Please model this.
Amino acid sequence: MRRPVARNLSGLAVAAVMVTVGAAAPPSSTTGATGTPPKVPLAVGYGGAVSSVDADASAAGIEVLRRGGNAVDAAVATAAALGVTEPYSAGVGGGGYFVYYDAKTRQVHTIDGRETAPLTADSGLFLENGKPLAFGDAVTSGLSVGTPGTPATWQTALDTWGSERLGSVLRPAQKLARDGFTVDPTFRSQTEGNQARFKDFPDSAKLFLPGGALPVVGSTFKNPDLARTYEELGRDGVGAIYRGDIGDDIVRTVNKPPVDPASGRVARPGKLSVEDLKAYGTKLQAPTKTSYRGLGVYSMAPSSSGGTTVGEALNILGRTDLSKATQEQYLHRYIEASRIAFADRGRWVGDPAFEDVPAKDLLSQRFADSRACLIKDDAVLTSPLAPGDPRHPGACGKPGDKAAPTTFEGENTTHLTVADKWGNVVAYTLTIESTGGSGITVPGRGFLLNNELTDFSFAPANPAVHDPNLPGPGKRPRSSISPTIVLDRHNQPVVALGSPGGATIITTVLQTLTGFVDRGLPLVDAIAAPRASQRNAAATELEPGLWNSPLRSDLEKIGHVFKQNPEIGAATGVQRLKNGEWLAAAEKVRRGGGSAMVVTPAPGD
Model:
């Protein structure tokens, strides 16, 4: 594949950046547990940048950039390494959404790699005796498993924009799985949260509970089965999943979950078939675009609701000068815009292959204006707020149908952001849904299966109103994933970012963007700022930094209702500076802190 020619980029600094020293990855990047690079949340330098939640994963991407690969190659390498070190968040058993900026054409492209329901699925997929299954029963079952989209996403990205073969970019992750990585407190804690499930599936127990015990912090965790799976994918291609032996193993596992009979757990069988795997395809599609403060904000179109919901909220906020607002005024406006956008998301967004999704109308300024006028400075809207009609915006806030509650989405997705020396950029969010997915490991293959189908509505919230997110044959469940790339007036990248967090992904991206663009925060500080998340619910969730702040009581005085959430999201981002320099930023504390790296801190090294 032709690699874009190098170009001299004149960076646009939207926010001031007080950094004088760049941090580069060590020369020997992916040495596993014996040489795990340190985690730092900020790095500035040249030759490209990678930011993820994990140091070994970021180092895998840097290794590919250092040897001449481009941003797409490095993104796939980083994602594969996250499948090793973040197996409860992502892996070949899941799916995701990939946003790519091409420096040569100065255009943004996307891949919808969302999992799909079996071709035999119908709207009653999660009904039993006419009633919705308990959520926990649905998650830990074959019923929750959608056809994986991650391997196909990797292959599509490499075939379309990459410069290296799949086998080459999988090698760092393959080595990491074989040699092992160092267990940290986050990995142990997430394992502990899944212990009750994992122990009931012998293959999950063998892998994640060695000797029947939780992995010890500081010990080396190896996954030789996954190393062999990566080796097979590198050798035979992703056809090994969609038309081969790995796929046969997936189907067998879904349809007869290998649960320990003595556990007493009822693990309902799924209905996945080899025909489902053969029929799966990613979708190369246009991004959403929103104009905000003279910038172009590009993200994922449906089946994800991320681009339309973040975009609508930005359009609502665009009529207010947030740079001059007090912190109380800023948070009030941000919370109310989120509330409104989520009300509209719940009514209108689903898989466009099955639903008539008015994405263009949701992103129109006319519709945003008809909703923005609902916001008052001295009062709070009541949730659940009824949606508007984007095709026929009425007088100020004329309500439409009764509001639908937000579908629960698991929070343990992962996000990575990559830039290369040619100016190409990738924002990629991938997931297996809940922490630990379905809890079911494919025997001998070393990866967990997703539970993405629980992102569907189990039953209509209001039988009188059409729900666009009910299951269907081959249908993609609605997502909140919001990988975002922002361009300046010359279609040059300014910043790219994204986050895990289920439905809180949308609010995390929105708050981080407005913090960076409107409030003038350096990117790493916009990521670290304490978060609020309002998703058309009675109460807005606050992280401790806001919960314990005087701002909470100030906002409560005008009617806001809050509840505490210890941690919302785990964002990463990259920012283009001047003359080919990049800034990579990650979390300072959340999920144990993230890992930002650049190829070299000095030009020409």
User: Anything to note?
Assistant: Residues 327-348 form the longest helix (22 residues).
